[in-house]
């Protein structure tokens, strides 16, 4: 098969690239011991972190791959001239979840005036401006994308679907919890695949049943099998044809989103249903990623005198608190399992995982030498990155943990990528 040319946006430290290309042609699902033999080839990438002067994630990315075709510039500036982005077969990226509302259409223009700083519109501008549009889109976002904003549940996703519909794409999506399919971390993310009308997959979907595609025959269903949660829970509706009308009038009651965790949009018609995983394979557990205790640096172990602080933060609470203005209020929260169970997949890694200070959300495990936090290598393994992928000179462990809090589970990308190849 000829190479499939890929453009990777919002690249972070390269999770999509690892999933599609492998690392040194080795696959994440084999712990980088077996060949992937992938035709995917990232020909251009972009990573820009607006909130920091030093571009740490981009530095890691460039250290792992050739920096010649990598852009470390604000994508909103880059897309002002989309000719600098090469034509590609597939565009991929984990774009941020933001407020996607549309203010107005622009007269005599292809574009839409969304809110400044909303990076979906950078993707949209590339797709709009390119004469040779990518045949496939493979995107990732947090699971709340289907449910936001709170005043118009599902509106943001409806805007994305209708804007892709206008550009000639069929779109399928699924919320996948990686641990449901044997991966080592409970990480729920929305995965979106789109197929341009010039592709054979588009024509195949149009010729069949929407429900059959998303339950049995689809790209995601082939590798992440599901069953419908209840036979009566399929929702079907047509999106407003005008994207501004979608922005202003979608689900005005703000009640439950009409988008379930699985679905497809064809010609503006949405078919959506709740599904549950149907997996009977092996599972990787937290204990399977843990390194030998003798290789763990001393600062990762929790000192005896700090344990009360950890116990308090992890524990259940019912107490009176004061806000900044002195107003008193009742505060309560449930307890967390502490320490984290080694016989299960790990909890979701968050960006604040690093650092010595006690925290409700950091992982803590039991070892023969006492309780300790997870090391950068273990966090990398929970996202199925190669060991020491984020290690470069002078990169702090706290920053490395931050990268993994922002990353995705590489094995999910690899499996969907392989399934898409079979469809192609």
Element layout with pairings:
Layout: E1 4-9, H1 15-21, E2 40-46, H2 56-64, E3 70-71, H3 75-78, E4 90-94, E5 102-105, E6 112-114, H4 120-129, E7 136-142, H5 155-166, E8 169-177, E9 188-196, H6 200-207, H7 210-217, H8 219-223, E10 226-228, E11 235-238, H9 243-249, E12 262-266, E13 269-273, E14 275-277, H10 307-314, E15 317-322, E16 328-333, E17 364-367, E18 370-373, H11 376-382, H12 397-406, H13 410-423
Parallel strand pairs: 1-2, 1-4, 2-3, 4-7
Antiparallel strand pairs: 5-6, 7-9, 8-9, 8-12, 10-14, 11-13, 12-13, 15-16, 17-18
Helix pairs in contact: 1-13, 5-9
What does this structure look like?
It is a single chain. The chain has 424 residues and is an alpha+beta fold. It folds into 2 domains: 4-281 and 409-423, 3-Layer(aba) Sandwich (Rossmann fold); 291-341 and 350-406, Alpha-Beta Complex (DNA Methylase, Chain A, domain 2). The chain is 26% helix and 22% strand. The chain has 13 helices and 18 strands. Helix 2 links the parallel strand 2 (40-46) and strand 3 (70-71). Residues 104-113 have low confidence and may be disordered.
Spans of 5+ residues with little confidence (pLDDT < 50)? 104-113
- The pLDDT mean sits at 92
Q: What is the number of beta strands?
A: 18
Order of neighbouring strands in the sheet with most strands: 3-2-1-4-7-9-8-12-13-11
CATH superfamily heading of the largest domain:
Vaccinia Virus protein VP39
* First-residue to last-residue Cα separation: 10 Å
- Quickly count the helices: 13
Shape: globular
CATH architecture of the largest domain: 3-Layer(aba) Sandwich
- Give a quick account of the main beta sheet: strands, pairing sense, barrel closure: 10 strands, mixed
Cα-atom radius of gyration: 22 Å
The CATH topology name of the largest domain reads: Rossmann fold
How much helix, percentage-wise, in residues?
Answer: 25-40%
Number of domains: 2
What structural category arises from helix and sheet content?
Answer: alpha+beta
State the oligomer: single chain
CATH class of the largest domain: Alpha Beta
Strand content: 15-25%
